[in-house]
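Chapter review: from sequence to fold.
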Amino acid sequence: MPNKHHIPFNLEPFGQANTNEVFVATDAPFGYITGTVVRG
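The token string follows.
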């Protein structure tokens, strides 16, 4: 179970504004995710 976060990429150094269109996947910050599979 991946714990990937997608945060907006800062385009200001390139003279552009990011209107929530360009994101970067990162694994930080991270957390602990568990999952349970049950047969019914």
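Two observations follow directly from the output. The mean pLDDT is 85. Residues 1-32 form one domain.
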